Amino acid sequence: MNNTQARLIKKLNDAEATIGVIGLGYVGLPLSLRFSTVGYQVIGFDIDADKVAKLNAGKSYIERIKDTHIAQAVAAGFTATDDYAMSARAEALIICVPTPLTKQRAPDLSFVIDAVDAIAPHLHAGQVVSLESTTYPGTTEEELYPRISATGLTVGEQIFLVYSPEREDPGNLDFDARKIPKICGGYTDRCLQVGLALYRKTIDVVVPVSSVKVAEMAKLLENIYRAVNIGMVNEMKMVADRMGINIHEVIEAAKTKPFGFTPFYPGPGLGGHCIPIDPFYLSWKAKKHGVDTRFIELAGEVNTAMPNWVVEKLSQGLERFDKTLAGAKVLILGIAYKKNIDDMRESPAVAIMALLENAGAEIAYCDPYVPVFPRLRNHYFDLASVPITQQNLEQFDAILIATDHDCFDYQMIQNHARLIVDTRGRYAKFQTDTIIHA
């Protein structure tokens, strides 16, 4: 352990270090609040001036994070900024920015690279840089290390570099930032020791691994495991539907086995910032090493095709009433990617809405968590959430449940909807002419 490393670890252990969090979204903001709660001074960086202004005023822009929590952090010294020169004041810089896909389904690391380039002129000895954004194995070594080394600082001696993947699960009240074990890999062993000191005061369990590549691959394995199993159960759903079998009853029966089975549930497709994207990150990188990830890509194809399956099931349901998609009035229930949250990233509901609009349907949506449709990168609808009332339900030809928020009155929906297309199994026990299981 050299003197620079020792001084930095002591500051981190004593909560005397300033923590800089780059990207104040669904990952970065909760992490910032957690560091603040423990007693660190925290600077939050974001390119969105509106977010910065709201946070400094003690206001939240994420539904599950209350204004009072933001106000408490501000009172404790938390500040948000879009001035990256302030990164020089932080001993730790944690990067929590998006890693989406390009139109060609290749990794888009532009947000990560922009973040590193923004802080690079202000880096100095005695700092640690941690990347938390989900990415392919090799990113930390191939993209971050050269940029940090170009500043003239020696990684592992003067400045320290780690990869510690985020593991946020929006809407899951059982696990907050403190309770979710934190994987950490270092570019060198000295880097790892600094990374462990960075997180162990704020996270209950920190899990060291031998390299940044192992940490990067572990995050991909976690999410691809889910993507593949969801693809499998979505395919099973389609097979069961053709056979007249209730897939939800099948799952309930199968999960009574006390070993060797983990239940996964079908839906209208994958959503969120990781699971729909991560398989493509690995398959892209695998091709660079001459490996064809056929199994993973097949699961991606199944999941990507689910919105089309849902729309086809809706079309079949409308035929019972001598109607077609063209001109049909359809109310989408829930447009966030999962229930009880306001996160719209990669939501399959948006793909369904686009397919319906292209088919000539008249669409509306209800989602108390998303009062106005946001401006997304790929789709935009000039719509606002409509309330669920008896009158509203009765004027639509079909109600399509894309995201099953607990706040919906499912009994009232069943009582007054002409046709229900259920993609989430809310009405799994009902077999009627007016409920389509999709």
The gross shape turns out to be: elongated
Evaluate the radius of gyration: 24 Å
Structural class: alpha/beta
Poorly predicted runs are none
**Strand arrangement, largest sheet?**
3-2-1-4-5-6-7-8
CATH topology of the largest domain: Rossmann fold
Total DSSP helices: 15
Mean pLDDT: 94
Task: State the order of secondary-structure elements, H for helix, E for strand.
Answer: HEHEHHEEHEHEEHEHHHHHEHEHEHEE
The assembly state of the depicted protein chains is single chain
Number of strand elements: 13
Describe the SSE topology.
Blueprint: H1 3-13, E1 18-22, H2 28-38, E2 41-45, H3 49-56, H4 67-75, E3 79-81, E4 92-95, H5 110-119, E5 127-131, H6 139-149, E6 159-163, E7 182-186, H7 189-200, E8 206-209, H8 212-243, H9 247-254, H10 278-288, H11 294-304, H12 306-319, E9 329-333, H13 348-358, E10 362-366, H14 390-395, E11 398-401, H15 410-416, E12 420-422, E13 435-437
Parallel strand pairs: 1-2, 1-4, 2-3, 4-5, 5-6, 7-8, 9-10, 9-11, 11-12, 12-13
Antiparallel strand pairs: 6-7
In short:
The chain is α/β, with parallel strands linked by helices. The chain contains 15 helices and 13 strands.
Question: Care to describe what's here?
Answer:
- This protein has 438 residues and is of the alpha/beta class.
- The chain is built from 15 helices and 13 strands.
- An eight-stranded mixed β-sheet has the order 3-2-1-4-5-6-7-8, with helices on both faces.
- Helix 13 (348-358) links the parallel strand 9 and strand 10.
- The longest helix has 32 residues, at 212-243.
- The model has no long low-confidence stretch (mean pLDDT 94).
